[in-house]
Amino acid sequence: MTDLIEMHRTAARCSFYERTAVPGGYTYEHLVLKTSPGATGLTLPHPPAVGDLVSLPGIVTTFRVVERAWSYNAYGSANWPPVEHEPVAGPMLDVIVERDVGPFRDEVSTGLEDDDD
Questions:
Q1: CA distance linking residue 40 with residue 7, whole number of Å
Q2: Residue ranges of the domains in the chain?
Q3: How many angstroms separate the Cα of 15 from the Cα of each of 52, 74, 76, 86?
Q4: For residues 41 and 31, is the Cβ–Cβ distance under 8 A?
Q5: Identity of the highest mean pLDDT range in 17-26, 51-60, 66-75
Q6: What percent of the chain has pLDDT over 70?
């Protein structure tokens, strides 16, 4: 149980946003993940890095991480009470993703396919 509490104190609390190109810029939509009741994101000890492909709970598509924005707990806040020597919850991470077809999206035919005749 102590390991679970320690993970909660250090793991990133991740929220995911889908970025879509529109004329003049982008729109951003907060993705609602199908996780535990009341949860607004995922708590991850190792959040995805820029360039990683991710599949998110309850969403049937693949996303590529394009940006990340960290927010750390301030001393004296609810997540880092003055009586504690360290935060009681991990940092928050906004993860910006775009839809992606996967790692082989740029594959082209070489014309050298083998015939199994």
A1: 18
A2: 2-100
A3: 15, 19, 23, 22
A4: no
A5: 17-26
A6: 87
